[in-house]
Amino acid sequence: MGEIMIGWAVVGLGDITRRRVLPALRDESRSRIRAVVTRDPAKARSECDNLGVERICSTLEDALADPEVTAVYVATPVALHYPQTMAALAAGKHVLCEKPTALNPGQVETMIATAKAAERYFGVSFYRRFYPAVNRARELMRAGAIGQPTLVWACQHSWFDDYVMGHRAWLFDPALSGGGPLMDVGSHRIDLLNYLFGEPRLAGAAISRQTHRTPGFLVEDSATVTMDYTTAGELGAVRAILDVRWNSRESRDEFRIIGTDGQIDLTPLNSGRIRSPKGEELHPPHDNFHFPLIQHFADVLEKGATLVSSGETALHTDRIMAEAYRVGSA
Would the pTM of this model clear 0.90, i.e. be above it? Predict the structure, then answer.
């Protein structure tokens, strides 16, 4: 039997879609970009032509009516993830949704149940699960390289100012984004912690707007969350501290796993560099972070492979974030 051909509809034409998602779909051999859904088709024409997009649609309904569309990539503001995923599933399409999954865990639970009832795959774009350095860290921990892991320190710091607000204003409106850096960059790191250590329990949270007073900046600019992973996990009891913020002009992207006999340092997280008692190694991610994710989803559709980043795995992240906002907001 020959390879399947997956006809994709991509909803949303933001920065990540242009730089990563569409190029990944173009380069994945079993995928074709059947349609892109955007509010301004005329404006998108030249760029979409260069990426091999076959059709540009002004509505999701138009794209979903195409029988050659078998999968939908949802890449819109978070508030749209739930209704657009539900519409795609109702039309019989598989869905790969950008993170964070939805505005609240209840929406995620409904998305999961709907996908199961429709017998369609529902994945979430937590692409760091496919980083070679992350999987090397799992291998080292399982081999006992740092003894029992006991503490993880993860942080991502950057500065969001009026320039960023002018280009991505929806991020700063909780009705559209669900929240600030905890939802945007924190979700990636919580999911990675869950991938490494299992199901978390919130131990503490502090979420506030410390510095930003710009009108329209309505989300937190800093969040610190502490999570516990229980002894029931494969690697024993682990505590994780996550600190994410949009109020630091000094950028940081740290991820360190500390154990009884040493540490594994993945700092900076996107570099592929890993330092452990076994020495320093380099396992760089793909040039396009989204490509292994897209390739894996194609494997799932073609071969029935188990989804590495599914709605079910993403739900743990959404639950932790919802609880953190509930107990930690000042």
Answer: yes
